[in-house]
Design brief:
The chain has 523 residues and is α/β, with parallel strands linked by helices. The chain folds into 2 domains: 240 residues, Rossmann fold; 178 residues, Nucleotidyltransferase, domain 5. 34% of the residues lie in helices and 13% in strands. The chain contains 18 helices and 13 strands. A 7-stranded mixed beta sheet has the order 3-4-2-5-6-1-7, sandwiched between helices. It is elongated. It starts with a helix and ends in an 11-residue tail after the last helix.
């Protein structure tokens, strides 16, 4: 054998050996977060950002590691030895932040490394679901075709190890009856709430694969599904999104909360290396963050998008600071201004204001007004499916120092109407139980304007303080909104949730504006 022939044979042998090692590595499960990053870089040519930039945020790689690794170890939280019950998580990230792309990567990894893992893709629209699946099928063409057990179909594919992926449509019939291990819900903000509620019952663990429901979206609205999901998993109020935040009734600490993975523009923008910060249009938001970034969004593209958009849209879609408040009734409500510890002051007059309800909640607010005219909401009562006598007992027991301290109890004028079955009215029942209620008829718009004026008057001053104990009222002030497609003169949406605390507050302002007359009866 001549020397050239010998070298050619050696090269072929080396190539075969390198290919064998390469394919062997493809089938080797990453055992650490860094291994996972390297694997995705080598086999999919995607450099997943791994740097956390903002406080309380995550890196995109953190989500991917959670989605992949929760099946292989007993995941333990950083603060305690509590085993995660499942692989559930919530992902809140910016537009262009790679949410759909990374979810497709997670789906590929599930199917390659987790035998008999059934994955379903459900999105807020058919186009969005198809987009994640298109990403997945494109990844398969990077040498993963050999893992398939047949052709790639329009809405799903099968793998030799028994795993599969299918795309679900946004409908009850599509979701119900599914019993799978992984459900990835993309752009949850656009979901039909009934479909999402049905989807919660689709995942089941097997002996080797942990069930996971992943809820992925940008947060567009302060009253949407994503806001409810985020506020339900955040443990402390200070982690909630600023102005526009909803401080919801959160479960007790013993209740399992899936992790929240949140990232924004600064975790996904490219590293800034050669720009003058003082002349950069992004500086007021960036403040040097991009100098430490390691993402892929082009800085010039981000500057262009910022100039195209409104400030509200930029903060919601790219900075993930707060939802867009365009449709919110009380956009001047700011927790930092309007929420503060306020307790009963025996030197100030005490009022109550309530909104009737049975299936919908019965709401009562305890309110005082100080000498400067500041309205102080010191407590709230919120309960459904209870009779008037039960409510009356609660109101009396929770009123500081008894009924004699209450100057007036204001209510919904509709409560004076006689019930078709009992022949009496809520107002009459309360009065018979020792609670003297009064009311004044008014338009909804009039009451809303009074609340707005208290939140911030024409000079920019606030005249409303709410105790942190009033969680339902705080949530309502945040989320009370107009219909998504409304005319300028249309009233806010009566959703049976946020409107009742607002109505109770509205009745206070309407009635308090009219002086209470002391009458003297002659006998």
């Amino acid at each position: 054998m001549t020397q050239p022939e010998s070298l050619s044979l050696q090269n072929q042998t080396d190539t075969l050996s390198a290919n064998h090692i390469y394919e062997s590595l493809r089938r080797t499960r990453p055992s650490s977060k860094q291994d996972l990053k390297n694997y995705i870089k080598v086999f999919l040519n995607i450099d997943v950002p791994a740097q956390q930039i903002c406080t309380e945020h995550s890196a995109p790689l953190d989500y991917l590691w959670h989605a992949f690794n929760s099946d292989f170890i007993s995941a333990v939280s950083a603060s305690s030895a509590v085993k995660f019950l499942n692989g559930d998580c919530v992902v809140w990230a910016n537009r262009g932040g790679g949410k759909t792309d990374l979810a497709a990567v997670a789906t590929l990894l599930d199917c390659v490394f987790k035998p008999d893992c059934q994955v379903r893709i459900l999105a807020g629209s058919e186009d969005q679901a198809g987009r994640m699946y298109q990403y997945l099928t494109a990844f398969l063409r990077n040498g993963f075709e050999k893992f398939l057990a047949g052709p790639v179909r329009k809405t799903g594919c099968r793998f030799l190890n028994g795993s599969s992926v299918d795309v679900l449509t946004q409908s009850q019939s599509s979701v119900r009856g599914q019993h799978i291990q992984k459900l990835r819900c993309d752009e949850v903000e656009l979901f039909d709430p009934d479909v999402f509620n049905a989807a919660k019952f689709t995942t089941q663990s097997t002996a080797h694969v942990v069930a996971a429901l992943e809820s992925i979206s940008t947060m567009h609205k302060p009253y949407g599904l994503m806001q409810k999901l985020v506020s339900s998993v955040i443990a402390s109020p200070e982690q909630l999104p600023v102005q526009g935040e909803a401080i919801s009734i959160r479960p007790p600490s013993s209740v399992f909360r899936p992790p929240l993975f949140k990232w924004c523009l600064w975790e996904t923008i490219e590293k800034c290396t050669d720009r003058n910060c003082s002349q950069c249009p992004l500086w007021s938001d960036c403040a040097g963050r991009a100098k430490h970034a390691a993402g892929y969004l082009k800085i010039d593209d981000c500057i262009t998008q910022m100039r195209r958009s409104s400030r509200a849209a930029w903060e919601a879609e790219m900075l993930c600071l707060k939802p867009n408040l365009e449709n919110v009734v009380f956009d001047q409500f700011a927790p930092a201004v309007h929420i503060a510890p306020v307790d009963y002051d025996p030197n100030l007059p005490l009022y109550r204001s309530l909104d009737f309800g049975f299936t919908n909640p019965f709401v009562c607010l305890w309110i005082q007004v100080d000498k400067a005219g500041v309205v102080r909401v010191i407590d709230e009562y919120y309960r459904s499916r209870a009779t008037i006598d039960v409510h009356a007992a609660e109101l009396k027991s929770r009123t500081p120092y008894g009924e004699s301290r209450v100057i007036a109890t204001f209510c919904d004028p509709a409560g004076a109407g006689a019930n078709d079955v009992t022949g009496t009215s809520a107002v009459r029942e309360l009065r018979s139980l020792g609670i003297n209620v009064r009311y004044r008829r008014s338009g909804i718009a009039e009451g809303i304007e009074s609340i707005r004026r208290a939140l911030r008057d024409g000079s920019g001053l606030s005249h409303l303080i709410i105790s942190p104990k009033c969680l339902r009222l705080i949530e309502a002030l945040t989320c009370y909104h107009y219909p998504d497609t409304h005319t300028p003169d249309e009233l806010p949406l009566k959703d049976g949730l946020f409107d009742h605390p607002i109505d109770a507050l509205r009745y206070f302002f309407i009635n308090y504006a009219r002086p209470i007359k002391n009458s003297q009866r002659l006998y």
